[in-house]
Amino acid sequence: MRATVDAKVQRRLLPILFIAALMCYLDRTNLSFAALDMNTDLGFSERTYGIGAGVFFTTYAAFGIPCSVFVKRIGAKLGLPFILLAWGLASGAMALITSVRDFYLLRLLVGATESGFFPAVIYYLTLWFAEEDMGLSYTIVMTSTAVSGIIGGPLAGIIMTYLNGFLGIRSWRWLFIAEAVPTIFLAFFMLFYLDGEPSKARFLTREEREWLMNRQQTELDNRNGNHAVGGLAQALRLTWLWLIIGIWLLYSCGYYGIIFWLPLLLKSVSHMSNVIVGFISALPYLCAGAAMILVARSSDRSRERRLHLAVSASVAAMGFFGASVIHTLLGEQLLLLLFCLSVAASGVWAMFGPYWAIPTSILSGETAAAGFALINSTGVIGGYLGPFLVGELTARTGSYDAALGLFGIFMIVCAGLSLCLRPNIGDQTPCQSNDQLPIENHRKYSSPPMQDVEEGERMK
Fold first, then answer.
1. Residue 140 in contact with residue 18, Cβ under 8 Å?
2. How confident is the model at residue 439 (pLDDT cuts 50, 70, 90)?
3. Which of 7, 120, 245, 385 would be 71's cystine partner, CB 3.0–4.6 Å?
4. Gap between the Cα atoms of 216 and 87, Å rounded
């Protein structure tokens, strides 16, 4: 029964959630390509663009919890389509900007409308999947982050090249319109396609629905029995938590630095057309997606997190340092630079799986809610700092070399912090203390950051 039900649920839910997440990350990819022409048309400096790319995360953080509560109250069946519709309209409005003020305000609006999406996805998945399957399910959805770069770059290049001037509209404005329209249509499709919870699953038989409802309720009861009460004070006493918070801050800088600046960097070196830049920018994301899946599987099979995380960060550092040195000493060597950026992206994306396996295998209850809030907050800071630092350093030095080198240093520090963690970390049951970490009955997969937060809210 389990194999049949899980297969049906996966076929029904994961593709549509993957597509929705893909549209989410295409928004971030599209901004980096729109900047190729938008910055020139509107007179934006590297500093202005960097601030605008990063300011998104201020409202993304501020509205995350309210949007999550909103989705839980009205249900994911209504909440997810509503979020998609809101951010589709906000993203489409980006085509109307004419000034720096418009740019900043609309980036704030996009951040607010998009903030509840991934917490809502995690909450929705917990209604359907067993705990040991959550990490794999979420990883499938999150490969959209790499796929968005693989397909987003070529699509953006084609749209900006062949629609430029159509109906009197500039290329980069078409890019925002082309993103918004399918997102809005997807919102209405999801409204009729999604089932709110297992008891209302139209694609399952009555027996299958009852079996799934019983399993999910049993898991919820087990978690209620195992979760300890702690909260913020308990989380603040966990030494290892501060280590991974530092890792996530630096990781986010490099991650969003790549997302928002890769096309501009490649354009500055290649001097090629937008369509060519779009296609060659897909290579780093292609490598990143493969590395993300391979390292997550290796980490899950071996139940080892610390070294997987440290090695991935070291690979990313080598890529960033290599790109900086090549650009400094050899100038416009596109193939060598592209190779180094692919190595950097592979290392950065590969960190995702083993990283999230650590806190989700240890934290529980209110301590989990507080711990994940701290981690997510630092990720938001990194999301702002990464694009901002690239813009600021590029404006000051006239080159991307300093920013690439800085990200390399960040990744070296990530590797060092990873090695400071206990060797068996990430292979534990939920516990209350960083002094006693049992190593049996571990959670098997790399689960997402908001899973336990949403579960904790649901159990109250």
1. yes
2. very low
3. 120
4. 31
* Amino acid, res. 430: P
Q: Which two tokens stand for residue 113?
A: 């409308």
Enclosing H/E stretch for 251: helix 239-270
Task: Name, in order, each residue with C-beta under 8 angstroms of 455's C-beta and a sequence gap of 6 or more.
Answer: 126, 220, 223, 368
pLDDT tens, residue by residue, 216-269 = 788 666 655 544 445 556 667 777 888 888 999 999 888 888 888 888 888 877
CATH fold of 2-459 reads Growth Hormone; Chain: A; (1.20.1250)
Compute how many other C-beta atoms are within 10 angstroms of the C-beta atom of residue 333: 14
Q: What is d(CA 297, CA 354) in angstroms, rounded to the nearest whole number?
A: 9
Residue 449 is classified by DSSP as T
233 Cβ neighbours under 8 A, 6+ residues apart: none
CB 176 within 8 A of CB 34: yes
Tell me which amino acid residue 11 is. Answer: R
Residue ranges of domains in the chain? 2-459
User: How many angstroms separate the CA atoms of 256 and 262, rounded?
Assistant: 10
Structure-block tokens of residue 190: 């999801």
Residue 180 one-letter amino acid = A
Give me Rg for the CA atoms of the chain. 22
Q: What is the pTM of this model?
A: 0.74
Q: Tell the residue number behind the tokens 């998609």, with chain if given.
A: 84
Tell me the residue length of the chain. 460
CA distance 459 to 51: 39
pLDDT average, residue stretch 275-281: 84
